[in-house]
Amino acid sequence: MRTFVFTILLLLGVVATDVRAQVNKRYFVWVGRDMVMENRYREAIETLNILLRADPEAYEGYFWRGIAKYNLDDLLGAERDFTITLAKNPVYTMAYQFRALTRSRMGNYDDAMKDFQEAIDLRPDYPAPYYSRGVANILTRRYAEAVADFDMYLRFNPRDADGYANRGMAYLNLRDTTAAYADFERAISTNRNDPRGYLERGALYMAQERYDEALADFDRAVACDTTYTAAYFNRALARYQKHQLTAALADFDRVLALDPTSSVTYFNRALLRTEIGDYNRALEDYDNVTLYSPGNVMVYYNRAGLYARLGDFRAAEADYDRAIELYPDFANAYLGRAAARFMQRNTKGAEADQRTAERKIAEYRARLTEHGDETSYADTTRRFDRLLSFDTNLSEASLRNAVAGREQIALRPLYKFTLHSAEETPFGLQAVYNTYGLEEMLAALGNDRITFSCTDTDLAADELIRQNAAAEPAAGRSADWQANFLYSITQLLLKQYTNAMTAASAAIALEPQNPYFYLNRSAIQAEMTDFISSMDNEYSHLSLESDRSARVRESSRTYDYDEAIADLNKAAKLAPELPQIYYNRGNLLALSGRFPEAFADYSEAIRLDPLFAEAYFNRGLVQIYMKDTRKGLLDISKAGELGIPDAYAVLRLYGDSAGRTENTDTASSTNN
């Protein structure tokens, strides 16, 4: 990959005429487009970045980079790139089309509809915007408009089974079951190997309680595509209605094997396992629902009931607490908590909950009398243990944007001096500035494995010990700064913090005007603080938990980074233009809970180095924690664009929330 990028740089840089430059840039767009087509999205972004730095007016570069970001779930970044594309070429139909798709996924349907209309006005004979707008109209319950859009689309593509299936869905929601059935039949006859028609016709049979016919259609859908999760899910519901509980469980198992993040499937399987008495595994399923959809009230209410059935009334009360916190008018939750408190001999609390529940119920009935029928969690006759359909929005997050794992998303680490093998020198280190004599200092150390980086060493333990042994005698015999500084590096890598600090201080005493020495001693001090804190039950660090509540974990104790920050303050006086100083200080301020100050330092690092990916990433996390989610995600998007893969985990986690705030991006405020 590096060789490829270097070759492209030569294509852009070694040109004799403007004509030749244009040819090379067109070739570069073609290469980026091909990478997108081959699903090599991150490589495409790297490649197109080089083009856009050479030619900021290359609107097709922004367009294809937007496509790559869209496929990486970087919706804000994609929207921004499509906006820049249109600022540079206002008649680029495809950019309107894809920006509309992006805005639809973000829930910004009003602006999406405007973009679809722009695309249609520019090219009325282009079918794709009609199809996409039809889907958006279904999602926003504008079913008559959806029918009109699919009518237009099918004029251009009369052999597209999906078009008929979607129009059938719109008819079904308009309660025109005859037209819906006809479209589902047409979808099947158009392409008998496409599972979609069978799925939708089966769903219609389900609504009509024709379960045998529904099962037959879902069987056909599965036969057409053995990875079609919607078909397995709906077949499970049909089998449940036929009291084929074991077979229904098997279908839910299959869905989760294909999509381990499907909250609604875990929820349904939990209900089914509870029904057959498999309580422990039902609890496991509810735990998974809370992981992927922690904002959903039903999971806590149902799990509380299961805990109560198992006699764990304390756990039941905790879940009722959470359900009430999420929905304070939940009368059934108050009644359940009253029972759980009574069983724990908390009579006073139980009576208070009983009174609250009765008041909520009375208020609900009064509203019914005044306003007619109403669905509410205060309705004590409402059931919360029914199986849910596949398209149920179990939480604020879209299922397709569910969290991909349970890992923590943490701050990118501090910059410091470390050792790397020659083969694994981190890409990009060669671009570190030679400000304040960095290259001369590295040369004077006489060890080509020393790098200035925020990545961990890749050397094995035995090689680290060998490197340390080579450094130790020199440090003991001489008073030169090189020996002491090198020894501080190897001792830090071996977690010998006291020795590392002593050697680093000796180097500073010999060369008190070297800003890198203070920066590195600060990193040693910070790592020693983290090591001490890790000995406690709570580990002092800043990270975003990969659940939808997205809490920043903080230790119950505050650990003192003041000495480490003081060293960075000295370094900043000696080297005010070195961005890594402000980046490191931003990290320590964030870990100390001083988020506005951390934000200011990350911003200064970015001002000094507009391509400082780690600074964008960490500033984004800090902004998310300070509840400025949209701006935080824009920074995370920029970090991903600049090559940090972890950015896309954050964007998947938060991407749905970005579209719920007002769109304030403009092309003029975007960094290329």
UniProtKB/TrEMBL annotation:
List this protein's GO terms for biological process: receptor-mediated virion attachment to host cell
Q: Where is the signal peptide?
A: none
GO cellular component, alphabetical, reads:
cell outer membrane
Repeat keyword on record: yes
Where do the TPR repeat units fall? 93-126, 161-194, 195-228, 229-262, 263-296, 297-330, 579-612
Query: Which keywords are on file for this protein?
Result: Repeat, TPR repeat
Kindly list the organism's lineage: Bacteria, Pseudomonadati, Bacteroidota, Bacteroidia, Bacteroidales
Its name, as the record gives it, is Tetratricopeptide repeat protein
